[in-house]
Amino acid sequence: LNSFNITHIEQAVNWTDTKKIDFYVFCLSLKELQQHAAGALFALAFNNPENRDAIRDAEGIPPLVELASSGTDQKQLAAGALWNLAIDNPQNRVAIREAGGIPPLVA
Q1: How many DSSP H helices and E strands does the chain contain?
Q2: How many CA atoms lie within 13 A of 46 on its CB side?
Q3: What pLDDT shows up at residue 65?
Q4: Is residue 46 classed as helix, strand or coil in its secondary structure?
Q5: Cα pseudo-dihedral 69, 75, 81, 86, rounded to 10
Q6: Alpha carbon 61 to chain centroid distance?
Q7: What is the predicted pLDDT for the residue at 40?
Q8: CA 68 to CA 38: how far, in whole Å?
Q9: Using one digit for the tens of pLDDT, what is the confidence trace for 27-83?
Q10: Which of 49, 60, 68, 73 could join 104 via S-S bond, C-beta 3.0 to 4.6 A?
Q11: CA gap 89, 93 in Å, rounded
């Protein structure tokens, strides 16, 4: 799968945000899809408290922290997603800290 195929799949399927979140959290485990997945989670978390909780519940924070710690181009997207997840969400802040997310965000 590449980003074109993912975008095509998403447009063809009437997914709820929860299904999209589960899909994109899974895609974080696939090197070829990490950038697209991090960008999608960044967008889904923006101005959406319910999605912020859903991303945490889907175990999306640890792989985003891992990606933010990498030296890849995806680092900025993962850091942005973590930023959006932390906004007005103390539980996500704790989860980010517990996943080791502070050092890569302040580096």
Answers
A1: 8, 0
A2: 10
A3: 97
A4: coil
A5: 40
A6: 7
A7: 92
A8: 10
A9: 999 998 999 999 999 999 999 999 999 999 999 999 999 999 987 778 999 999 999
A10: 68
A11: 6
Which candidate, 9, 3, 1, places its Cα nearest to that of 74?
3
Residue 94 has a CB neighbour count (10 Å cut-off) of 13
Q: How far apart are CA 26 and CA 37, in angstroms?
A: 8
At 49, list the tokens.
Answer: 């408290």
Say which residue the tokens 């050092």 belong to.
103
For residue 50 the two structure tokens come to 């319910």
Query: What single-letter amino acid sits at 19?
Result: K
Does 106 score more than 90 pLDDT?
A: no
Whole-number average pLDDT of the chain: 88
Tokens of 82: 């973590």
For residue 6, count other CB atoms closer than 10 A to its CB: 17
Place of tokens 């997207």: 77
